[in-house]
């Protein structure tokens, strides 16, 4: 369930555009007005605001936000205001253009591929082509080392059936195929990629259940114990988690971003922005179940200022 709170009575896109334009004028910027408008509008409403702002003022709202805001608050507001497909496409491109493609950064590609609906993933790929004159899969193949590229291209190009239909016999058979590949230490076997990359989320969850019933361990545990490429093992484990329990994955992203020395604001922003209109309520619940602590309080205790207020607005708090 989503966490953003859209008011019962919402001003017209023109009125919201005027409020935002006023927030940019004069000495200083009215950050609270920006949070109050953009932090409480859904995807379609934000799109209409962008269109209205362009029509009325002849300027791009994203450009004005970029020039008026700063720091992590600026990054979060701009990421939120962009069209979701463009948002994901730009996140993917940033990862692929980074000279140091650490396994943690490559995991963003897994998030995009495995926690998006089939139609949304296609929209992301189209946006990527439009923005960069190249396909997402081509850029993965040309910039990520084998065998990681093999897995990531398979995931990025998938178009999964999105209904809840499940074939338990197929689940048992394919659990056996996965077990055989793991026994042979072949995590990049074509059978693994075919199953992980083509089956529906519901079918895969049934396969994961069948695997544990047949072999005693969870698939994740057996992958973890499989010798070989540690990075491939880590990516594949994340694929399993994102498919089986996406809310647990994002709860972990939030936790990891605020634990230890310093805050990983980019990861924290990504998790909140990506899930605020999807399942952030479930992420909040899983966070409490996993860490016996309030996610909201953890965030409040780790960040501050307008950035904190914006994240908490996306979480549904009254600022």
TrEMBL record:
SMART domains: ANX
Alphabetized PROSITE patterns for the sequence: ANNEXIN_1 (PS00223), ANNEXIN_2 (PS51897)
Keywords on record: Acetylation, Annexin, Calcium, Calcium/phospholipid-binding, Metal-binding, Repeat
One protein family per Pfam: Annexin
PANTHER family assigned: ANNEXIN
Protein family: Belongs to the annexin family. Belongs to the annexin (TC 1.A.31.1) family.
Record remark: domains: A pair of annexin repeats may form one binding site for calcium and phospholipid.
Name recorded for this polypeptide: Annexin
Organism: Brassica napus
